[in-house]
Amino acid sequence: MLKNRQELLKVRICLLVHFISFFIFTFVYGGVHLHMVCKGTNYLNKAMALYKTITVRPGVRVLLWKIEESEKVLAMDVELTLHCDDRLKGMKSELHRRGFLSIRHLLAEAGYTDHDLFYDSAGKPHLKDGRKISITHSHEFTGIIIADFDEVGIDIELQRDKILAIASKFTPLEEYKTLANTEALIRKLTIVWGAKEALYKIYAHPGLSFLHHIDIKDFSFADKGTTGTILFHGEESFYTIHFMEFEGYSCVFAIKDE
Predict the structure, then answer these.
(1) N or C: which terminal CB in the chain sees fewer CB atoms within 10 Å?
(2) pLDDT tens-digit readout, 25-51
(3) In sequence order, what DSSP letters do the residues of 182-221 get, joined into one string?
(4) 18 to each of 15, 25, 29, 32, 115, how far by Cα in Å?
């Protein structure tokens, strides 16, 4: 009888030792694994970061992204609507797909998902909560501007000499003959084109001509801003324009005046 009790006690002690060993192993190595997972997640978050955020004025923000991540990384944690998923699948260019996905990360930075975004029949983007939004993508940069109430537009353009060949189609070239050199002319024309593109995105009416209906007041590079006017079918509207330059790009964003 005593012998049986001793053997039962040994079994219980053995089971207890195994349980304690298992608990220690799980706690120590599981904790290390959790730390490694968290560290990896933090690294990913650091790798995917905004290029720049600008508060234009209260209620109006610009967010810019430099596309350095792979398509696979950018696709993580992004849930697209069926419409946008079809659009993504239809893009042949990997850079376009990466740009498309990076814009969804910009939306997330502003507190939105792809499901909060929709497009009207003219292709103009809108937010379901009524706030105003405009979107742009050029090569390795994307950007959005979001406003609580104001109508807004944004455009990013790579500064390239090819703009010289098309300048006469969107602005009177004689306005810029005083510029010192070709580089300065390319920079200025790129800003003017970006400004007209931003205004076009706000107005969004078929038939609106960059050359005949949109006017951008002349400016110096130091101004970092100017004004614009649209005169279309006898109706006139006015806009405040801001611009900045970085890494060979021009970024222009506009706000419709009340």
Answers:
(1) N
(2) 444 444 433 333 333 444 345 456 789
(3) HHHHHHHHHHHHHHHHHHHHHH--TT--HHHHEEE----G
(4) 5, 11, 16, 21, 51
